[in-house]
Amino acid sequence: MLGGVWTPQEPDAAPAPSPSPAALPPGRPADELLAELRALRAGDAPTRGGRTFAYVYDAGLPGLDDLAAAAYGTYATVNGLDPTVFPSVARLENDLVGAVAAMLGTPGAQGSFTSGGTESVLLAVKAARDHARAERGVTRPQLVLPSTAHAAFHKAAHYLGLEAVVVPVDPVSFRAPAEAVAAALTDRTALVVASAPSYAHGVLDPVADIAAAAAARGILCHVDACIGGWFLPFLRRTGREVEPFDLSVPGVTSLSVDLHKYGYADKGASVILYRDAELRRHQYFAHAGWPGYPVVNPTVQGTKSAGLLAQAWAVLRHIGEDGYTELAGRIADAADRLVPALRALPGVRVLGEPAGSLVAFTVTGADGAPDLGRVLHLADAMRERGWYLQPQLSFGPLPPNLHLTLTPATGDRVEALLADLADAVKAVRASEPTAPDPALAEFAAGLDPDRLGPQEVAAVLAFAGLDGDGPLPTRMAPVLMLLDALPVRLKERLLAEFIGSLFRV
């Protein structure tokens, strides 16, 4: 996030924030309201057409969006809270989770449909915490994870009261070192995590080695396959080699896979799988100690529309195994064209060995070291050319970079992207090196994030151009360079305050 407004045409094209409403206005005709929604969407990054290389997953298949919308509409008013009242909900979920388990599980695997990868991760961590408490007597649980594990695991640890134990990854391969992960395990470890692949760099952790180390100590192992879970198996079907990563790997006890990524369903649709029903039981919440109806929630949500379940069910059955295999092959072919071309660009370094669909690269300066300013200015330069590449800041020894998510739609744009990228890299590398305002960086770095008052936060944000009272800056490099220079806790505080300023009510 915080990648800047989408301005491929004019810098002021994005609509200004609307004033906070005091009350509902008089009713208006449906066509007027839909027209206003379409006008608001015009200021966003496009979700179709292959020019947005993050956040969206476009299969490029005609009619798929219409099918998903129609399936959602059929079930939009159905409450997924109680499958005894709406038994078709259980049928759809059994079909959907069963298909995922058949592709990624083992006999006896059980799971649930969730609203997205974050909910799937929350449930996996909850199940592991409760399992460790019930089976091993762990009262102060730890979560061991590589530094490249998704932020959702830190969110889960924060929400659920686990101590996050972070293991640095190899700064060259960006993979989690299995030996270091094994050394971090203790009697308090409830769960260890591996990524297939990691979001930040698109590389596959050594799942088998990490899972074996966990199993040797009786510890659960979760594989975050939210990105790769519905891509890598079909990539393997094209004849390409893919390291084992799913529940068939000894020691892997749970796995998450997002169907709104390479399943091409609408957001949000994900599945959490467990090796058996006994593990899944620790995910559930049941409560009968109140005067209302008995509550049983398999997932975090209670009341929820069954529309998202229905559209995911329809999309998966429409595309089918052969369709997903063909789409995976198109992405792999695009990566075959993209990665060597990136490596051939002067001053560009691809990070690690991409597992297939995610690619991260940095831009170097004259000394050959990654150059933060040039990385971030390149993101701005590409956005001005109509492309969104996701900027990622440095983290310890891991360099700043630009992240690209390949889909069938973006794959069709690889040559056009490379032409603009070559031009933009040349211009950026010829420019003078830049750095954040040293006075502001020094001032901000001396602030205590836990003692900042609202006025101090507002002053720093306003100086950085993030005061929340107008459109975002059209060039985000100066803002992101300042953030990169700040301590993590201060960075988090400012980001939270900035996002809070966007939601004024």
Summarize the structure in words.
The chain has 505 residues and is of the alpha/beta class. Among the domains are: 72-315, Aspartate Aminotransferase, domain 2; 438-502, no CATH class. The chain has helices at residues 30-41, 64-75, 87-104, 117-136, 151-160, 178-184, 207-216, 232-237, 277-281, 307-344, 372-384, 408-411, 414-430, 438-445, 454-463, 477-485, 488-502; strands at residues 110-114, 142-146, 163-167, 189-195, 220-224, 254-258, 270-274, 285-287, 295-297, 348-350, 358-363, 390-392, 401-405. The strands form three sheets. Strands 1-7-6-5-4-2-3 form a seven-stranded mixed β-sheet, sandwiched between helices. Strands 10-11-13-12 form a four-stranded antiparallel β-sheet. A two-stranded antiparallel ribbon has the order 8-9. Strand 5, helix 8 and strand 6 form a beta-alpha-beta unit. The longest helix is centred in the middle third of the chain and has 38 residues, at 307-344.
Briefly, what is this?
This protein has 505 residues and is an alpha/beta fold. Among the domains are: 72-315, Type I PLP-dependent aspartate aminotransferase-like (Major domain) (Aspartate Aminotransferase, domain 2), CATH 3.40.640.10; 438-502, no CATH class. It has 17 helices and 13 strands.
